Every structure is written in C-alpha cells, then in structure tokens.
C-alpha cells in the first residue's frame, strides 16, 4: 500500500468550474482517499509528501477519440507492416499521450483487449485504454481500407487495423457479438463517408436502418452502447432515433440535430484538430490528394457545428482522432474549442463528460474521494488560459495514473 499526500494545491473542481486554493489530496493504493484544506488532511505515515506550491492539481485528461493502431495515412504501407512494428508504434503513442497528461483514452477503431491489458498490468506505460475493437463497416464504407484497385475479397489479415466488414443485419449482429466477445466497451459503426477512406464520398450514407438496429440490439443486450462515425445531419438524427448513444465528428449538424442529441441525452465527440492538421500537413504526411480534398468539405463547418452543439446544450466530449505523426498535436483541440466555448466547458469535455460517456463517472475525470488517483499538476490556471494545458514541456509538472507517478518534475 503506497500513500502520497499532495499539499498546498489549487484543486480544479471541474464540476463547478472553479479553483479551490490551499487544498490537500491524499492518495492511497491508487485511489483518492481524501480532499480538503491542507491544514486538515493528514496521513500517519505517507510514503511521499508533495508540496504542490500553489500549482493547479486537476483530474488526468481523457481523449475520447484516438486510434493507436492507425499509424500511417499510407494504408498500403500500413497493411504491409509486421505486427511487432505496428504494436511498437502504438506503445510509443500511448506513452507519449500519458506524458501529455492523458490518463484515459477511448480508442474508436483498432485497439484491442491485449493492448488495454498490457497497460493495466503496467507492461507498457500509457493511459487506461477504453476500446471498441474494430469498427463495423459496410463493404466500401469508411472502415474498408481497400483501394478501388484492390480486388482482394477480404481486408488485411496480417495486422490489426480499423474496420471489420459486415453487410446485412445478420453479419452486423455477428460482428457486434464478436467485438463484444473480445472485451470491447462499445461498438462503432461507420455511418457515412470519411476523409481517409479510399472509396466513399463524405456525403454517402452507410448502413441501413435494419443493420444499425441489429448493432443496437446486440449492444443493449450486453449493457454496452453503439457509437457512429458520421458528419451528416440526417444520418445522425436517424441513428440517434434508432438508439445510438454517441456520434463521432458531426461536422455537418444543424439545429434540428442538436435538439435530437439533447432529447436523447446523447454524446457528440468532435475531432476538429485532425481536420486542421490534415489540411496543413496531411499531404506531406502521406495523405492522398483525394482525401485532402475531402477534408476541406468538413474543415470549415467543424467549428460552427461545435458552437451550435455547445449553445444547444449537447454533451460534448474531447476527441483528437490524429493519425500517426499527427498525434503530437493531440492537445491543440483545447485551443480550437476555446475559440467558441468557455474554458471550463472545454475542460469538462476532457474530464466529467468523457467519464460519463465511458461509464466511469466518479471514477475518472474528477478529484474526489473514491476516484482513481488519475491526476495532473500544471503551472498556471487553465480556466484563465487554456494554453497551460497545451504546452506540457512548459507547464506540466506531474502525471499520476492509478496512484503511480509517470512524469515528475516537482
Ligand atoms: Zn476516428
């Protein structure tokens, strides 16, 4: 049993959106035991006492949309990699994410039980991995990585990628059961075209109502939920009405979509930083010209969609969706969102809202008794200036996950 006592911290209460000065946080056995005034919280024999010296102590961050196995835009090359090379890259990505202050990530296509297990057992260093396994895609849908030139009838079998092709309600049902059998926390459906897929258009709708309903039925029966990749207002409205709990991206929503989100208490995970990054750097990082052109269809509308969703009261969750080398920009989503949302709301997206989406409310995303001891310490007030979260080299002094310190500059 290890005990760490943090003293003289300004604790960020993300629920109230306020900093509480001169606080102590007692961590025992990977959990937060007590939070209160420094003069009042005591521990008989702590293994370590940390003087936080007035810095901000806040919950570890949660990224609600990552792909740790999607390591290159060059799908052809990616499919040729040996699994050991791909996994090595994923391990590096996870370690880097933890060093940026993310203590939980939700992988929305690719990551598997084994990778989450390796993190849980501390075989590798990384954020807790909440994963959905392979995303279900129709033939030629956003998760079908085959180029139009590719006449093979099955997708890559040599390495873990993103999608599992399933057509018709029966195949979707079987695919969903298989994904849940392998421990997935949710099921993801590709519901319209995407930027990186080689054979669809952004405006194409994917999966029929019957297919979507089959996935929802399987998820419901096992106490899990379905999320959907789509930009389109009509596809989102339809999917939420059938029973999806969450939508990824949503760049082309309208006011009526916002109302359905609120009515269903559903979640939206915008991923604006990936479109900005693909626009600026995609071509030099191997994104095809066709994908770069598709990107511009969703780039402009992303920020106004976020603003609309925020004003309408949608449950918003932080997402980055960055591929391979792009992942260095994972924290810039904070900067982008702060253009249209108060900083406290942007921080809630990466803490309490994300925790609720992944079913870990009260366990992650808060500094409170009984929560997992997932904490970060930053120099400065992120409510006042969000850039405090965006530049870890300068501001991030400590990262703790489950009571274990992974970054320590104090
Ligand atoms: Zn994605």
**Share of residues in strands:** 15-25%
Q: What's the total helix number?
A: 14
Report the major sheet: 8 strands, mixed
Radius of gyration: 21 Å
Counting structural domains, the number is 2
The low-confidence parts are none
Mean pLDDT: 94
Based on secondary structure, the structural category is alpha/beta
CATH A-level architecture of the largest domain:
Alpha-Beta Barrel
Structural overview:
With 410 residues, this protein is of the alpha/beta class. It has two domains: 3-60 and 365-408, Urease, subunit C, domain 1 (Roll), CATH 2.30.40.10; 61-357, Alpha-Beta Barrel (TIM Barrel), CATH 3.20.20.140. Helices cover 34% and strands 24% of the residues. It has 14 helices and 18 strands. The chain has helices at 75-80, 83-99, 113-120, 168-181, 209-221, 233-242, 255-264, 272-281, 289-312, 332-337, 343-349, 352-357, 387-390, 392-395; strands at residues 3-13, 18-28, 31-37, 48-51, 56-59, 61-66, 102-107, 128-131, 135-137, 163-165, 186-190, 225-232, 246-252, 267-269, 315-316, 375-378, 396-401, 404-408. Strands 1, 2, 3, 4, 5, 16, 17 and 18 form an eight-stranded mixed β-sheet that branches. A five-stranded parallel β-sheet has the order 11-12-13-14-15. Helix 8 runs antiparallel to helix 9. The longest helix is centred in the C-terminal third of the chain and has 24 residues, at 289-312. The protein is globular and about 65 Å long. The two termini are 22 Å apart. The mean pLDDT is 94. It binds zinc ion. The site of zinc ion (ZN) has 5 residues, from loops.
């Amino acid at each position: 049993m290890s005990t760490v006592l943090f003293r003289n911290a300004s604790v960020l209460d993300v629920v109230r959106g306020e900093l509480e000065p001169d606080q102590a946080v007692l961590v025992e056995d990977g959990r937060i035991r007590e939070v209160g005034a420094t003069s009042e919280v005591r521990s008989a024999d702590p293994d370590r006492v940390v003087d936080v010296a007035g810095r901000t102590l806040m919950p570890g961050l949660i990224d609600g949309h990552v792909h740790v196995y999607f390591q290159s835009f060059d799908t052809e090359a990616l499919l040729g990699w040996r699994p050991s090379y791909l996994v090595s890259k994923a391990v590096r990505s996870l370690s880097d994410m933890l060093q940026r202050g993310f203590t939980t990530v939700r992988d929305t296509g690719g990551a598997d039980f084994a990778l989450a297990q390796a993190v849980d057992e501390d075989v590798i260093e990384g954020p807790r991995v909440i994963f959905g396994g392979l995303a279900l895609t129709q033939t030629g849908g956003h998760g079908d990585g085959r180029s139009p030139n590719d006449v093979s009838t099955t997708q890559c079998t040599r390495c873990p990628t993103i999608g599992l092709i399933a057509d018709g309600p029966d195949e979707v049902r079987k695919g969903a059961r298989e994904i849940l059998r392998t421990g997935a926390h949710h099921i993801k459906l590709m519901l319209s075209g995407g930027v990186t897929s080689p054979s669809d258009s952004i405006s194409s709708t994917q999966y029929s109502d019957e297919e979507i309903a089959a996935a929802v039925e399987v998820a419901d029966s096992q106490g899990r939920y379905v999320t959907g990749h789509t930009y389109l207002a009509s596809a989102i409205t339809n999917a939420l009405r059938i029973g999806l709990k969450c939508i990824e991206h949503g760049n082309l929503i309208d006011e009526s979509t916002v109302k359905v989100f609120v009515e269903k208490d559903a979640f939206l995970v915008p991923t604006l930083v990936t479109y900005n990054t693909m626009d600026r750097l995609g071509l030099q990082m191997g994104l095809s010209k066709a994908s770069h052109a598709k990107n511009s269809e969703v780039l402009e509308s992303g920020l106004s969609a976020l603003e609309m969703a925020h004003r309408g009261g949608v449950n918003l969750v932080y997402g980055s969706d960055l591929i391979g080398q792009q992942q260095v920009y994972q924290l810039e989503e904070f900067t982008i969102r702060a253009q249209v949302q108060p900083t406290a709301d942007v921080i809630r997206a990466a803490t309490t809202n994300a925790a609720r989406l992944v079913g870990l409310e009260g366990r992650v995303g808060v500094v409170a008794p009984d929560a997992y001891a997932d904490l970060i310490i930053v120099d400065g007030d992120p409510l006042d200036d969000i850039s405090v979260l965006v530049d870890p080299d300068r501001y991030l002094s400590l990262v703790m996950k489950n009571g274990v310190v992974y970054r320590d500059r104090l």
